Amino acid sequence: ASGASVTCTDFCPWDSSIVSVIGDGLLRFLRIQDGATKPLTFSFKREVQQYSCHAWLPDERLIVAAESGELLLFEGFEFRGTLNFLQNQQQQQQQQSQINPQHQHQQPQSMPADLLDEEVEPISVHSLVVYNKGFVCGCSQNTVQVFESSDDPHEYYRHTKTFVVDGNKSRVTSLALSPGEDNLACSLANNQVYVLGLSNTDILKAEEMSFELLTTSVHGPFSADATAGPGGAQVLGG
Q1: Mean pLDDT within 194-202
Q2: Where does residue 150 rank: exposed (0-12), middle (13-18), buried (19+ CB within 10 A)?
Q3: Which of residues 173 and 163 earns the better pLDDT score?
Q4: DSSP string covering the chain
Q5: Which residues of 170-204 are buried (b: 16+ CB within 10 A; e: fewer)?
Q6: Which of 55, 152, 178, 229 could make an SS bond with 128 (beta carbons 3.0 to 4.6 A apart)?
Q7: What percent of the chain has pLDDT over 70?
Q8: Distance between CA 223 and CA 204 in Å, rounded?
Q9: pLDDT of the residue at 196
Q10: Over the stretch 120-150, which tens digit does the pLDDT of each residue have?
Q11: How many other C-beta atoms are found inside a 10 Å radius of the C-beta of residue 11?
């Protein structure tokens, strides 16, 4: 992929001589040895797409996210399959309709076309973070998706939870988990930073949990006109 832009690169945690490189139509594993870099050969054939981020998992696994919303799982640098939370969401909606048949009659016939388009818009993945039960995806449409390790021998991870960060549609550009895994922070493309407290709470049973602004709402990127606070920190008015 000569000339392809690189979006993310990282050293393998269990083999420091191997580096993963992803980007625009680019997905490679490289070995650094004797001052030279050589690509690792692995069997993987997919349509060319934009890979946005990746994260190393336990048991020599790697999850690679594409902006199409597709999640690619590798184990020992071998491709194992895809995880697609969009399919899981559709299944959940179908199950909900079966449980509550009245939902089938709640589809307005006069709904504007632009709203219909928003409902079927694919959710792209822009950030990943690993936690003790699986991993979390920061996505477009201000959503955070949670995957948990599965006991089913036919699947590795299962989509278990969807969080909506705030009421304005914006992609989640970055995720960070505190060392004790008691707080999940995320930044959005609209320049806001939110935090979700997880202390003494199961992340998978969080229907009443919500993200809170980490600081006073920021309405735009930092600028040279921002007031300098103690220690050189920039302060913006709410």
Answers
A1: 70
A2: middle
A3: 173
A4: -TTPPEEEEEEETTEEEEEEEEEBTEEEEEEEETTEEEEPP--------BEEEEEEETTTEEEEEETTS-EEEEETTEEEEEE-HHHHHHHHHHHHHHH-GGGGG---TT--HHHHHHHHPPPPEEEEEEETTEEEEEESTTEEEEEEE-S-TT-SEEEEEEEE--SS---EEEEEE-TTS-EEEEEETTS-EEEEE-TTS-TTS-TT---EESSS---S---TTSEE-GGG-EE---
A5: bbbbebebeeeeeebbbbbebebbbbbebeeeebe
A6: 55
A7: 67
A8: 39
A9: 84
A10: 467 789 999 999 989 999 998 888 888 999 8
A11: 13
Residues 81-84: contacts with CB under 8 Å, at least 24 apart:
81/156, 83/147, 83/156, 83/157, 83/159
Considering the entire predicted model, what is its pTM? Answer: 0.72
Angle at 15 between CA 186 and CA 76, to 5 degrees: 80
Please give the share of the chain, as a percent, with pLDDT higher than 90.
Answer: 25
Q: Is 54 exposed, middle or buried (0-12, 13-18, 19+ CB in 10 A)?
A: buried
